[in-house]
Design brief:
The structure holds 2 protein chains of 2 kinds. In chain A, about 0% of the residues lie in helices and about 55% in strands. In chain A, the strands form 2 sheets. In chain A, strands 2, 4, 5, 9, 10 and 11 form a 6-stranded mixed sheet that branches. Chain A has a 5-stranded antiparallel sheet with strand order 1-3-8-7-6, with no helix packed on it. In chain A, strand 9 and strand 10 form a beta hairpin. Chain B is built from no helices and 11 strands. In chain B, strands 2, 4, 5, 6, 9, 10 and 11 form a 7-stranded mixed sheet that branches. Chain B has a 4-stranded antiparallel sheet with strand order 1-3-8-7, with no helix packed on it. The radius of gyration of chain B is 13 Å and the shape is globular. The chains are: A mainly beta, B mainly beta.
Chain lengths: ~110, ~110
């Protein structure tokens, strides 16, 4: 069974701080990794994807991938209350099928 | 912008009814997926399709079937709805091995 593990949280950070969300995966052959944001009652929204080891930055978001450690993370700089949501890590485990973690709830307090 | 639409945001059905959930995408994606999402269980894959007329079982196909007659449309069918199928149903699509894009979801309640 291919697994994706995330800490369920909640992760609480003050406004303006850096939020660090982590994810580990079991399938060593996985090549593509995705982060989704999901507000309560809404559907997941793609934030970032990363395919290569290292960092990928997009605005306030940075995805980090370490394939040797089977670890992917998402950093959110200058966190805002509007970033409060559940963040889902997803890994391609088939041709295009994704295995999702159960998500980490992030709470950003003003 | 990718657009994935689902036929209903909220649906209430009775036990034993046949239920159709429709999903349409406008980006010419060949791959389409149906998930259900439940508290504490996360997103679980029900069925997926890589092409018209093709379907593959996901992790929890029991009690569901699907239909893909046109590339842009993927339907999920509950042959005889049961209370344990009360859930949020999410459709997604993708091209190749790219990111999946989700529709707004259908919250189904089976009484």
């Amino acid at each position: 069974q291919k697994e994706v593990e995330q800490n369920s949280g909640p992760l609480s950070v003050p406004e303006g701080a850096i939020a660090s969300l982590n994810c580990t995966y079991s399938d060593r052959g996985s090549q593509s990794f995705f982060w989704y944001r999901q507000y309560s009652g809404k559907s997941p929204e793609l934030i970032m994807f990363i395919y290569s080891n290292g960092d990928k930055e997009d605005g306030r978001f940075t995805a980090q991938l370490n394939k040797a450690s089977q670890y992917v993370s998402l950093l959110i700089r200058d966190s805002q209350p509007s970033d409060s949501a559940t963040y889902l890590c997803a890994v391609i485990t088939g041709y295009s099928t994704l295995t999702f973690g159960k998500g980490t709830m992030l709470l950003v307090s003003p | 912008d990718v657009k994935v639409t689902q036929s209903s945001r909220y649906l209430v059905k009775r036990t034993g009814e046949k239920v159709f959930l429709e999903c349409v995408q406008d980006m010419d994606h060949e791959n389409m997926f149906w998930y259900r999402q439940d508290p504490g269980l996360g997103l679980r894959l029900i069925y997926f399709s890589y092409d018209v007329k093709m379907k593959e079982k996901g992790d929890i196909p029991e009690g569901y079937s699907v239909s893909r007659e046109k590339k842009e449309r993927f339907s999920l069918i509950l042959e005889s709805a049961s209370t344990n199928q009360t859930s949020m149903y999410l459709c997604a699509s993708t091209k190749g091995q790219g990111p999946q894009y989700f529709g707004p979801g259908t919250r189904l309640t089976v009484l």
